[in-house]
Design brief:
By secondary structure, the chain is of the alpha+beta class. It is 31% helix and 33% strand. It has one domain (10-180): Gcn5-related N-acetyltransferase (GNAT) (Aminopeptidase).
């Protein structure tokens, strides 16, 4: 029997949640190891909660937390209207390492889509997949309807050099389905 996980609460996070996010990031050291060549930095959570891409404003940033009891089980970092006014960029979506395979990544992504409903100009979700992390995450993003755009940029952290490939998915069809209901 295929059981759907129960819906967990989602809240907007702030810098006050950095200890919870740091614990989550440390529970999933493989991501940091693949992308940066080292485990999570001691200030990884603060960086995730405060970092902005070029030309983005702090008002565009929304950080979401998926909670299981008192523990942060999932995280999504959004930049609304970046790099274009019709796009939301998901800078990071991460689930607690011990909770993989329970559908929590899809739950936090659904929360992202719910937040986007409050931004009627947004018609696409965008992500960047670092080549060193691609084998691990591409199946997940494909399952959510994302596809490569062909856009490639350099990705460098410290001495580690790689490529980041942009993927996207439209959200206009989702809005039309909601309007038809």
């Amino acid at each position: 029997m295929d059981r759907q996980p129960s819906k967990l609460p989602v809240t907007v996070l702030s810098i006050e949640h950095s200890a919870c996010l740091q614990r989550l990031m440390e529970s999933n050291p493989g991501y940091s190891q693949r992308v940066t060549g080292a485990g999570p930095a001691s200030d990884a959570a603060i960086q995730a909660l405060s970092a902005l891409p070029p030309k983005a404003q702090s008002e565009q940033k929304i950080d979401l937390g998926l909670w299981e009891g008192e523990e942060l089980a999932g995280f999504a970092d959004l930049i609304v209207g970046w790099p274009r006014p019709d796009t939301v960029h998901i800078g990071l979506l991460m689930v607690d390492g011990a909770r993989h395979g329970r559908g929590l990544g899809k739950q936090i992504h659904e929360a992202v889509l719910d937040v986007i409903q409050d931004h009627p100009l947004i018609t696409a979700c965008r992500i960047s997949i670092v080549d060193a992390n691609a084998a691990e995450v591409e199946p997940f993003w494909k399952s959510l309807g994302y596809a490569p755009t062909g856009e490639i940029s350099t990705y460098a952290v410290g001495d580690k050099q790689s490529w980041a490939r942009t993927w996207s998915r439209p959200i206009t069809s989702m809005r039309k389905e909601n309007l038809d209901e």
